[in-house]
Amino acid sequence: MMKKLLCSTLMASALPLTIAFDTFAAGHVNYLNVKGDIVHFAVDEAKAQESPACVASENADRFSVSLKTEAGRAMYSLLITAMAGDLALNVESALDCADTAGIERALGASIAPADKVSEPSGNLYLYTGDGKTRLGQIMQTEGTDVFYYYNPANEILLEKYQAVVSGSTLYFDEADCSGNAYINYNPGTTYHRYLEQYISLESTAQIDFNSKSYLGGETCYEDNRLRKYYKVKYTSHGLCGVKACMIKGE
Length: 250
Description:
Layout: H1 2-7, E1 25-35, E2 38-43, E3 62-66, H2 70-84, E4 88-93, E5 104-112, E6 124-127, E7 134-142, E8 146-150, E9 159-162, E10 165-166, E11 170-174, E12 178-183, E13 190-192, E14 197-216, E15 219-235, E16 246-249
Parallel strand pairs: 3-5, 10-13
Antiparallel strand pairs: 1-2, 1-4, 2-3, 4-5, 6-7, 6-16, 7-8, 8-9, 11-12, 11-14, 12-15, 13-14, 14-15
């Protein structure tokens, strides 16, 4: 059966994905790049401890992981999980640059799931955004944002889920980031991590408005400027609902 053929490309979800350690950095993954068998990544919060002397200043916020080792491949799977589920990641440093010159090597990583996702310890499953409905077991991945999962209702093909997450600046026509929201490009249908809401455009025509505030990251700032951007519409995802789909380890 085709299902059996597809399952032969399973990602290494059976590997343990969490390790207890002292946290050297924590935050959401905001950079991920694969060069050969080396993964470079960074999180959006500053490192909690000073990097080793081997780290180049331009790479001060980054870590490296080698895909040559089983542990490295497990960490890469965890990075993908963290990005897709918009989960905070704790990183432990090896305090050297053994993987690639000038970049701090990550020794271990764990997801900080808070109350959104259970701590993964075995197979990974895709759930709706409210965490109540299990959609199916994740069987393989494509890049960092495409996941194929087994839906028991479909015995032949794997289902596809693509995570589209953004933290782009939003502008508002009222103070305190209230009222109508606007954006300076067409995001399609995307999950905004700081609004915790799917957004799209109300129309493809830009609108003149007086911006009173804007949301940059998790912080709302005052603004007082005439702008011409696209008006945002709050929407939902056909598979996930209002919030982005979750990934749970079971």
